[in-house]
Amino acid sequence: AGRKAEVRAVMARWNKGGGKVLAGLTRRREAEADLFEGKITEALRTAGVVRAAPLPMPQQVDTPKPPLAVVAKGTKRETAAVAAGGTLATGSGTSEPHPFNSALTVAGLALGLAVVVAAGVLLVRKYKLIAEDWR
Predict the structure, then answer these.
(1) Domain ranges of the chain
(2) pLDDT in tens, the chain (135 residues)
(3) Is the dihedral of CA 9, 11, 17, 19 positive or negative?
(4) Which of 28, 69, 85, 99 is deepest in the core (most CB within 10 A)?
(5) pTM of the complete model
């Protein structure tokens, strides 16, 4: 209803368990009210939570440059760029085989299709059994 000023008082009412006021629930409702008001540091302090020190950022990892033999299989533009000390652009016209040409990929697709068909058969059987039970 837009009565944000009343939130803390209303939340404070919900601090009982078994008809008794519980200190833990009182502290929790106070922390929740702080969070509602956007006072994150106060909420953590009220709840008794200590933030751990942030972990150091990992160092940047340099990616190795491909060997010249691999580059030679690329286009003339790529070869010239590497010879000039540049880097290779990814996604360009290299002569790598298409992933769907692999027998392993075909076997994986066949296995996936078999699983989908089996799941469909099982679902149809289950539907028929349920339909019989409802008759």
Answers:
(1) 4-47, 102-134
(2) 888 889 899 999 999 989 899 999 999 999 999 999 999 889 988 888 877 777 666 676 667 777 777 766 766 666 666 667 655 555 545 555 555 567 777 888 889 999 999 999 999 999 999 988 887
(3) positive
(4) 28
(5) 0.38
